[in-house]
Amino acid sequence: MSNFSLIFFLDGVGLGGPDPEINPFVTASLPNLNTLFGPQWYLNNRGPITTERATLVQTDAGLGVPGRPQSATGQAVILSGRNVPQAIGEHYGPKPNQAVRDEINKGTLFQDVVSSGRSAALLSPYPQGYFDAINSGKRLYSSVPYAAVQAGLSLMTAADLRAGRAVSPGFTGEGWTTYLGYKDIPHYTPRAAGQKIAEIARHHTFSFFEHWPSDRLGHRGTLVEARTHLELLDKVIGGLIDGWPQNEPEGLLIITSDHGNIEDKSRRTHTENPVPTIVVGQNHDAIAAGIHTLLDIAPVVRKWLDLR
What we know:
Layout: E1 4-10, H1 31-37, E2 49-50, E3 55-59, H2 71-80, H3 84-88, H4 98-105, H5 109-115, E4 120-122, H6 128-136, H7 143-150, H8 158-163, H9 174-178, H10 190-201, E5 206-211, H11 213-220, H12 223-243, E6 251-256, E7 275-280, H13 284-288, H14 297-305
């Protein structure tokens, strides 16, 4: 089997301080991540943590550009490996403006894999209402789906969700039934959703899973809601890592974020905190040692997949 890689992307998840009145990580029940990395792995003053299964490194999202990191530029950096906020003169978001789109048009991991004749996919599906809003001009692509479409990929739909080729950004799929009215949508437990994402990723050279509700809860949710959401993520990540192949050296899993937010509920804006990057795969400690900023993630994937 050829090498393959998945970026499991969590929007707006940073590493914060120890105050339980501010940081929901402090009081959340996170058995999977705590077992993997030990207590207080979520604090922003920790160095790299390496275990047998994975390595966690703190990752700079500011990239030397003043101001709070934003989604459009941060996601473009992760996918391109270029300092997009520096190139356009600011952190920008949430949706990309023309300057950010121009940077994405210069090439991303999606484009690199497609150009090499191999398979790339954005594993997060979209309902028909999303496509209708895009086509009518009432909605703009965020950086990740824009990069996928720019590379010539078709975005996943409800049909892909039904067929098991995609997993809902909310993981369980229940929202598609309850709020969107879709029938016959498979429902997963959080752990099973993580395992399913790992399974689907094996069918592509490069895949990207985008989870955005974490950023929304950072902006709008209460401390209790944020804590509950982190407990959901812990179950999903536990299933994802458990489902990631251990005895096959071809797979590289990277879990990361574009900026901080949910880790500091004293504000409703993004933070300048570092973000966590988790690396799972053969020689994960050596790979993670080369990740210091968001600029380093795309080069790691390019090297793993032997992309020019």
